[in-house]
Amino acid sequence: xxxxxxxxxxxxxxxxxxxxxxxxxxxxxxxxxxxDTIERLINxxxxxxxxxxxxxxxxxGYALPYIDVGALAPSDFDTLIESGxxxxxxxxxxxxxxxxxxxxxxxxxxxxxxxxxLVKYICDNTQSALVSTSANISSLSVAKTVxxxxxxxxxxxxxxxxxxxxxxxxxxxxxLLTGERFR
Length: 183
Fold this sequence. Notes:
- The structure is a single chain.
- The protein is of the alpha/beta class.
- The chain has a single domain, classed as DHBP synthase (Alpha-Beta Complex).
- 28% of the residues lie in helices and 19% in strands.
- The chain has helices at residues 3-13, 35-45, 74-81, 100-103, 117-126, 146-153, and strands at 18-20, 27-30, 54-57, 88-93, 108-113, 130-134, 159-160, 172-175.
- Strands 7-1-2-6-3-5-4-8 form an eight-stranded mixed sheet.
- It is globular and about 45 Å long.
């Protein structure tokens, strides 16, 4: 991976906020264990903490502490792991230790398992899922260029991994247990 990707990992491990391309749109993210960083991310976006945040991972094992595993059937795990070609974020029951900033106080957590190579590299090298949210100020369009990221966030992002042309559409969102589709 690139020097910039290695810098992103170093930043994340020390509580940084980065911007990075995903399998869907450009994201800003951090590691879930840094409460102060989560607060910083929420403030950067002007987002309500009551909305909760998505966990993005290449390996469901990194997200297990935040999921109520007992509420899921083995086939649910198969669904999560074999998401296919369409990026899908699943709403799952959250564990008792899942923090409010991830759940929004709802008892559920949003999780997307991705095969995106950059996200995989980041997750594997931080041994963590990523807190992920669109790279924008709430209610504005998602940044598709480094210039737009700078306009939105000035120098508040610790590392920027540039957007990719393939970053076009957000994921679909489905409640894993009920099948209800939200987006």
